[in-house]
Amino acid sequence: MQNSEAIALSAALLAVAGELTQRIHEGVVARGFEGVRPAHGFAFTRLAPDGATVTDLAAHLGVTKQAASQLVDELVRKGYVERRPHPGDARARLIVLTELGWACTRAAEEAAAEAVRPWVELLGEGEVRVLRAQLLRIAPYGPIRPAW
Amino acid sequence: MQNSEAIALSAALLAVAGELTQRIHEGVVARGFEGVRPAHGFAFTRLAPDGATVTDLAAHLGVTKQAASQLVDELVRKGYVERRPHPGDARARLIVLTELGWACTRAAEEAAAEAVRPWVELLGEGEVRVLRAQLLRIAPYGPIRPAW
DNA sequence: ACAGATGGTCAAGTTGCTTGACTAAGTCTG
DNA sequence: CAGACTTAGTCAAGCAACTTGACCATCTGT
């Protein structure tokens, strides 16, 4: 594969990812969830379904645990998550989604489905399935980080 | 397409994009270009091949022109770009890549090719070509923004 | 020709992250 | 089972990339 092809692939991928993030975010806001940023969505994916500690969250987001803790503060203030005592480790706390947090997560899922719909119209259902399968095969197992 | 499938597709796409951005960045740093951030790369893609104004750059990156101007300051200080008088508009300035800027761009292209290589090994050359074609079809024409 | 739009910068404020220092609780060793 | 080390979490201060607001110089349209 030539460099120029790799560039075209990379540029297209990043453009699509940026667009997708923005559309999901807009969709969530349009459904009435204000004061949430895209980074919160990535936190939610780690907190669902059973919660996680601040340290887990920090690793998932690729930030320091102080930053993760501040993010949790903000989400608590806005009512999306709760800090609970951790069963079996008195130092730790289990951060869990509130009902509002779950509602927001469902809104994000709907927004994602909506954002993907044009792709189905463009490529057809089968091709999108192929795309998903390909991306799943090359997706890293590690933390999901901001793209930049 | 079900919501859960759209979620899986979105998550995989964003994970791959995050990974890709990080690998390209690491590759550029490994080639000796320090003090560059991923956002600079997106600026470079707009500045090549003929330069652009600060306002163009701001629109491309999806930030204010003040932010774009500050970014240009930084790139000038580090030797990657130059501000030139704009031919035909005395208000504007044409921001162009220096030789160092071009070298950095080539390094990013090599790093991108390197980051994509494992995908070829995983999926095969043909499948990657399909992936590229699909992404190019759904890629937006608009500005390339940070994913979040 | 002059009113308004546009390109760019300066200055100040906000925000989301970092590094550093610390406490409380768990774990491992002898 | 005591003492040293590690780990979870927070507090505090600083930094860096952005924002908003104000401003001047230049271009454009009637």
What does this entry look like structurally?
The structure is a homodimer. With about 150 residues, chain A is mainly α. Helix content of chain A is about 65%, strand content about 5%. Chain A has 6 helices and 2 strands, in the order H-H-H-H-E-E-H-H. Chain A has helices at about 5-30, 40-45, 55-60, 65-75, 100-125, 125-140, and strands at about 80-85, 95. A two-stranded antiparallel ribbon of chain A has the order 1-2. In chain A, a hairpin with a 7-residue loop joins strand 1 (about 80-85) and strand 2. In chain A, helix 2 (about 40-45) crosses helix 3 and helix 5 crosses helix 6 (about 125-140). The radius of gyration of chain A is 17 Å and the shape is globular. The two termini of chain A are about 25 Å apart. Chains A and B meet through helix 1, helix 2, helix 5 and helix 6 of A and helix 1, helix 2, helix 5 and helix 6 of B. The structure holds a DNA duplex (30 and 30 nucleotides). Chains A, B: GO terms for molecular function: DNA-binding transcription factor activity. Chains A, B: It holds the Pfam family MarR_2. Chains A, B: This is MarR family transcriptional regulator.
Summary?
Chains A, B: Pfam families: MarR_2. The structure is a homodimer of 148-residue chains. By secondary structure, chain A is mostly helical.
- Give the strand content of chain A: 5-15%
Q: How far apart are the termini of chain A? A: 25 Å
Average residue-wise pLDDT of chain A: 91
Beta strands of chain A, count:
2
Oligomer state equals homodimer
Percent helix of chain A: 55-70%
- Which residues of chain A form runs of ≥5 with pLDDT under 50? none
Structural class of chain A: mainly alpha
Largest interface: A-B, 60 and 61 residues
Q: Gyration radius of chain A, to the nearest Å?
A: 17 Å
**With helices defined by DSSP (H or I, 4 residues minimum), what is the helix count of chain A?**
6
The backbone outline of chain A, from C-alpha atoms, is: globular
* Strand order across the largest sheet of chain A: 1-2
The succession of helices and strands of chain A, N to C, reads HHHHEEHH
Largest sheet properties of chain A: 2 strands, antiparallel
